[in-house]
Design a protein that fits this description.
single chain; about 475 residues; alpha/beta; TIM Barrel; M1 Pyruvate Kinase, Domain 3; Pyruvate Kinase, Chain: A, domain 1; 8-stranded parallel β-barrel; 6-stranded mixed beta sheet; 21 strands
Length: about 475
Amino acid sequence: MSPVKRTRRPSQTKIIATLGPASSSYEQIKALFDAGADVFRLNFSHGTHEDHRARYALIRALEKEFSHPIAILADLQGPKLRVGTFKNTKIILKAGQTFRLDMSPQAGDETRVHLPHPEIFAAINEGAELLLDDGKVRLRVTCKGADFADTLVMAGTALSDRKGVNVPTVILPLSALTEKDHKDLTVALEMGVDWIALSFVQRPEDVEEAKAIIKGRAGLIAKIEKPSAVKHLKKIVEVSDAIMVARGDLGVEMPLEDVPSIQKRIISKARSAGKPVIVATQMLESMISAPTPTRAETSDVATAVYDGADAVMLSAETASGAYPLEAVTMMDRIISRVEDDAFYRAQIATYHPSLQHNASDAITAAARQVAETVEAVAIVTYTTSGSTTLRAARERPQVPIICLTSKVETARRLVLSYGVYPIPGFDAKTFNEMVLHACQLSLEHGLAKPGDKLVITAGVPFGTPGSTNILRIVDVTE
């Protein structure tokens, strides 16, 4: 029986939609999927484990209805550094005044406030900057001890209870995984999520610590949101399975004017390594309360697509906003318009990652070129681990990449990757058998019609990861 079809054409760039109070029913999630969402994010900073389990079950039921893999991403909260409370819940600061942060649990006032994080006092030095409330208040340390820091207010006015603290200039002696994260990670892995997003990554060791716990049960996404992560970007990309440009804290801890160039650098590094890369945070934020985005937000999404990101992400827009369906629909419209632009294709074509000197990279690069020359409608890859398909996605071909795999777990993870249309449950004994099924499945899924051409790659013998060594052009027949 043919699978249920979406009403939209599949785009190459994927959409991640965060679920929450505004998108918790089966009907709501189905509408988001049909509008263009490819991956659903469970934000463990909010909601209960029961909430996430219920949404997970709904997504898997939807996956069954559409006979198409859907990726589920669990986003861990990470350490949250916050000040304590104030006697009157809020104070007013003036530039040039002194202000103390200390370990005393007493309610604060205009002269001091509780900072229950001894690791901050241990790591900072005189001259260090502290950013409070997403950078709205900026302090400079003038004197410090083991349990206090005297500061000078450089900018900012109002400060209220439990606002966040950022320390941009130092690496804090903190694990990226808190006690809460360990519990959330256990629950997420027990559910069977496909991706884990790791917050507060400062160094490659943070990623390696999490991967040692995950043990391959899910892919790991390193969120780049700290200056130290940018500094160690190359190594973090190497040890991660995917990368997220998390522009929230990144825009607080680094000069705002630097964020666009950093975003481009992160995307480029991830693409070169063949790792999926996501652009996130405030993409269509005005649509939390408005039915249409600003022109600047539209350009922001388009820029991420022009840069060749694998996916763009919606957060509060779909989790708690008033217009979740409209937000996904708008993001899909922007992606489709960019991908139809001749300038987009020309820009993508100007950059292709350097190839390793092996047959797999040579065959994969040739597949993209051959597909363009013979005007094939798709490139077909056969993979068990996903490495063959990731290589094809790294080339950013202008046609879909049909991924045939025997493993549903591989198919789900590859949903995140650029242009990949995974079809699981397929196992071939010979290359000729794979070719026949590729033609049949491309017809069933509406990705080809009789007379179209497919470019097919695979590794023989089957089952050897990274052994792509065959390329064939085939004509699709009934």
